[in-house]
Fold this sequence. Notes:
This protein has 15 helices and 12 strands. The chain is an alpha+beta fold. The chain has 2 domains: 194 residues, no CATH class; 193 residues, no CATH class. Strands 2-3-8-5-7-6 form a 6-stranded mixed barrel. A two-stranded antiparallel sheet has the order 11-12. Helix 10 runs parallel beside helix 13, helix 10 packs parallel to helix 14 and helix 12 runs antiparallel to helix 14.
Amino acid sequence: MILARLALRNLLRQRRRTALTLMVVVAGFLALSLAGGFMAQTFQGLADGAIRGGLGHLQVMAPGALEGDEAQSLEKALPEGEALAAQLRQDPAVAEVLPRIQFMGLLSSGPKSVAFLGTAVDPALEPKHMACLDALKDGAKARGGGGSRWLSTDPAAREVILGTGLARSLGASVGSLLTLMSTTRDGALNALDVEVVGLQDQGLKELNDRVLTVGLATATQLLDAGPARSRLSVVLKRPGDTAAEQARLQALLPGTTVKPWFELASFYRQVKLLYYAIFGFMGLVLFLVVLLATANTLLMSVMERVREFGVLRAMGLRPGQLLALLQWEGAFLGLFGSALGLAATLLLRAGLNALHLQMPAPPGTSHGYELDIHLVPGVYALVALGLQATLQVSALFPGLKAAKLRIVEALRHV
Length: 414
């Protein structure tokens, strides 16, 4: 403990140099911690968007459903999808099962037809577990059309919700009458007249230009689907158990394929890898800056304290203890720098979140989002440990230089 007290006194004696070094450490901690909080917000937003955008926590599908293309509607479907959904609803870990039918075809306004990607959902269950209502946009026009609303739960209603880009391509709005055309399970062409009851913004321009949503009853009539369903979106009571439940349900349903949401959300995985690469590169640069700054500070301290080290050696301090003394100084710099950096991070995070800043729309999306830097204790601990290790390494070379000093030469040093 004597060495620790000496190290602390040395740092307090050289206040200006210590303050400059602490500023470098605090800046590094602040930059990495805020970046980690921003990444956590991005990952959480992408995960919620994927899960509540229709994937659910798990997807149950027919074997080979993700391989190749379907020659006709429901070619790679679960033939008894409704019965399977009823079975899964009895599972104690399952909160709800949302059957879905995915199909393609043409949507016609009369003079113009546009290809679409359709999803049929249960109008009653979907709003309870998915963010479908959040995606609805006001479709009212000056000539008197009403605003967007969700699909009716009446099985006889023939209603459709269009992506904003798809509606624009057809010149359609809420209240427009259109014709849905697609092929049945047997390959025959079928058509239904539908009414546009809403417009939706999925956040991605490519989706808005092609996507539409209908009720299961409408799609069943159009495709002659019967009880077949393309996929079942499973909502779990405990989202943290997704991986374990995926393995359990896969064993329980051997004739199907069960996939977790994060294996199907390719955009989420790509963004996560990109952010990890950016965070890693930025962390490497900041750690190098901290390493060089603190190593320079400690080395200058050694050069200015040569006679002091000579006296300590003459009093019986061993070379290894001199090395330990410099290590203690690095440890205190890391400890104080991390503490100040944590305080600065919490204050700046609170200030930025209170401003409710609007971030610009990411590439490929149609709208921005509000900045909300998350509190991530794990990131703070990792940054603190990384900076502490960096400071200990930076104190190593000056410590070795001090340990090699000869007593006589050190006492004569000017």
